[in-house]
Amino acid sequence: MLVKLFKLEVPEIFEDIIQIKSVARDPGSKAKIAVFASDSSIDPVGSCVGIRGNRVKAVTNELNGEKIDIVLWSNDLAQFIVNALAPLAPGEITKILIDEDRHKVEVVVSQENQSIAIGRRGQNVRLASQLTGWNIDIMTEEQESKRRNEEFLTSTELFMEALDVEEVIGQLLSVTGFNSVEQIASSEISTLTRVEGFEEELAVEIKNRAINYVDLKNEKIIKKLEDLGVEQELIDILELSLELILKFAEYGIKTIEDLGEMSVNEFKNLAPNSNITDENIKLLIQTARQHGELKDS
Asked: Which UniProt keywords apply (predicted)?
């Protein structure tokens, strides 16, 4: 509906001079739309807004007053995140941290700008997350500093216990950016030798200890999954870590049919840090439901 209305009001969109890259809506309340023009002489945002805002106002009126943020799409993720968080001014963002493994972006702002970034009842950051396809977390400078310190202490203790190393080794791994034993186990020796004081011999030993720890941990999880009666087919379709699959199993999700009965929110609550988008979660659940229907027929 929103895209169709903009095509009617903005000739440049209808003629494909301006492309609508993504849309996020809270129907009846607010929407965000990301636009782009390959011709640098064209202002896609200004064209969609119109003279004195006449074009966007026409769309808003058709949607019974739904507020619309028009932002510039960028293939630079950090820049796109900045744009998507409007009305937060770009200069008010202190830092952007992108975690590709967890498909998550942390945006650091000052205390006074946190409420603007988040929006009323979390609406602004929620729509920005939908628009960009990334989970966006807003935090203040103080919160980020505290969290980083807590993560440092937690990962240091984890490495000391799991790898049977002294505190200084655990600290060096943490400060270099390692946050899990799995990450160490899958790293190249050349990556580990970049840790301060790590010669190749030590790097090989640390990697081998990490591999042994992960293998033993996975063996225990697989045994638990077998004891719980989890279907191999579910493990294959989820494509999540064994640790997360165990979490699903303990919640009662042990078969494809169980997965088909889940809601998107339930899935996200169990796997908040997975890199699976809402659309792919929906597709996964729909596939599971169809599988169950075929099994019953």
From this structure: Cytoplasm, RNA-binding, Transcription, Transcription antitermination, Transcription regulation, Transcription termination
Domains and CATH numbers, the chain: 1-73 (3.30.300.20), 229-297 (1.10.150)
Is the four-CA dihedral 175, 181, 186, 188 of positive or negative sign? Answer: positive
For 205-253, how does the pLDDT look when each residue is reduced to its tens digit (9 = 90+)? 999 999 999 999 999 999 999 999 999 988 888 878 898 999 999 999 9
User: What is the chain's alpha carbon radius of gyration, rounded to the nearest angstrom?
Assistant: 24
Say whether pTM exceeds 0.90: no
At residue 15, what is the residue type?
E
Q: What burial letters (b/e) apply to 42-62, b meaning 16+ CB within 10 Å?
A: eebbebbbeeeeebbebbbee
